[in-house]
Specification:
By secondary structure, the protein is an all-alpha fold. It has 20 helices and no strands. It is a multi-pass membrane protein.
Length: 490
């Protein structure tokens, strides 16, 4: 008589449990076998089977999604402003920066997703369990929360500017509308689960892609001009500043925090709570242990029902698709500006770029650009708020009401709009604050994913760790140059 799996399924394995055997008959998410399938499984259950190295396309496709949501961070209004300015001022010169940033982003986002899948915990949760000092956790949370505020500042301002361009809505009201929509999306995520949230964000991602790429087909760039732009070089100190801004707007701390949480929420067997705030099953005795330091860590690879190797394979596809979309759109923004705005006065602001596009390519293309900017602001502010919630819970074990949590990061952005500060300048300064947060997210991520005690057999290969260290050193150095150039006025 076959044993019932109920006893084994009621809780995940911890480090004190025996090592699990290699099995591929673990049921996938929400999978209910048909009678014929159940019969066939009963006949073959006694025979060991090797897991398929080539899962079907529909099965892999259903596992795709978290990277596409996290990838919205690479298409936020800060990216739009940086790429438009770079293309307008230097033409094709900084094409290589966009390509390099995209390659590094692939590695960083994959490591973040892998941490969430294998451990069943987000990066803030892992750090919260390893930083023993209460004041250390609070200090780490404070810098991460400031980064979340700076992120929200860029997203809300971008959405407000887009609403102003499209409908003439005053900036302060546009900021309120953008913030309200982000709250609605977070409520949707908390009540309907991560998959519905993913579909909504992916819908906005499609709008972003259309809004920012159509202009390139109307006025295509010269291939002869693009190829020299792939050679790494700078023209002057200002081009270094723009390169650092592009990379700073691409590799964002909140995307690193968010991707690990998105992967956990999506694939963990029975998470106690999601970042959105809804309780998913019993907190005690079931699912992932995410509470005090006294609670045991899960054995690496036991947090999910789907085999870990399959999830990591699907995640590589997920990240590849997300980075291909983000890289293509960012490159199109730079090329659009290089072809149509090069040498045009007044294109150093989003409003100026919108007006110049209307003159060069017509009002339809300018309107699509503004629609893409609006979708960018709405999608990215929702993901940023999600990351902020996870940062607070993972590091402080504090879960505050949704509205209050949203106001913590929204109020500074609304205050800047109400006081009448220049929106584009505020976007640029927000990227400076983000630069301070990159080492605190990137260095622990690379270090933790290289440890066998954290990821077990899924720890990084030495070459992956070396690539992660190289990317970290490069990004931290370049962001240091960015800060030096800004504070010295160079």
């Amino acid at each position: 008589m076959p044993k019932s799996p109920d006893a084994a399924a009621t809780r995940p394995r911890t480090a004190t449990d025996p090592q699990p055997g290699n099995r591929d008959d673990v049921p996938t998410e929400k999978h209910v076998p048909e009678p014929a399938e159940a019969a066939a499984s009963a006949v073959t259950d006694a025979t060991p089977r090797r897991p398929s190295s080539q899962p079907s396309i529909p099965r892999v496709a259903w596992l795709i999604g978290p990277a596409l949501v996290a990838g919205v961070a690479y298409l936020d209004p800060g990216n739009v402003a940086s790429n438009m300015t770079a293309g307008a001022q230097y033409g094709y010169l900084l094409v290589w920066v966009v390509v390099l940033g995209n390659v590094m982003a692939w590695l960083i986002q994959y490591l973040s997703a892998k941490l969430g899948i294998v451990t069943g915990r987000s990066l803030p949760e892992v750090l919260g369990g390893r930083i023993r000092s209460r004041w250390g956790r609070r200090a780490y949370w404070l810098q991460a929360e400031l980064v979340a505020m700076a992120t929200d500042l860029a997203e809300v301002i971008g959405g407000a500017v887009a609403l102003n361009l499209l409908f003439g809505v005053p900036l302060i009201w546009g900021g309120l509308i953008t913030g309200t929509v982000s709250i609605v999306l977070l409520v949707l995520q908390s009540r309907r689960g991560p998959r519905t949230f993913e579909f909504v964000i992916m819908g906005l991602l499609v709008i972003i892609a259309i809004g920012f790429t159509v202009g390139v087909f109307v006025a295509p760039p010269s291939p002869a001009g693009i190829l020299p732009g792939l050679v790494p070089r700078f023209a002057d100190a200002n081009s270094v500043l723009l390169a650092a801004s592009i990379l700073g707007a691409t590799i964002m701390p909140h995307a690193i925090y968010a991707h690990s949480a998105l992967s956990r929420d999506r694939f963990a067997t029975r998470p106690g709570e999601q970042a959105g705030g809804r309780e998913r099953g019993a907190w005690h005795g079931f699912g992932i242990r995410r509470g005090t330091d006294a609670q045991p860590e899960l054995l690496p690879g036991t947090a999910t029902a789907v085999p870990t190797n399959r999830l990591l394979r699907a995640t590589r596809w997920d990240v590849s698709i997300a980075m291909a979309i983000a890289g293509t759109v960012n490159l199109c923004i730079l090329l659009l500006a290089a072809v149509n705005l090069s040498g045009v006065e007044g294109t150093d602001s989003l409003e100026g770029a919108y007006a110049a596009l209307g003159v060069a390519l017509g009002p339809a293309i300018a309107t699509l650009f503004a629609v893409g900017l609006l979708a960018s602001g709405l999608a990215s502010t929702s993901v940023g708020a999600y990351a902020g919630a996870e940062i607070m819970y993972g590091l402080l074990r504090v879960r505050v009401p949704l509205i209050l949590r949203r106001l913590v990061t929204l109020i500074p952005a609304l205050a800047i709009l109400w006081l009448g500060f220049d929106p584009t300048l505020s976007l640029v300064l927000s990227q400076v604050v983000l630069s301070f947060g990159i080492p605190f997210a990137l260095v622990p991520l690379v270090a933790l994913t290289a440890k066998a005690g954290v990821l077990g057999q899924w720890r990084n290969h030495w070459a992956t760790t070396a690539a992660g260290i190289a990317a970290s050193v490069f990004l931290i150095t370049l962001n240091g140059v960015l800060l030096w150039l800004i504070f010295t006025g160079a």
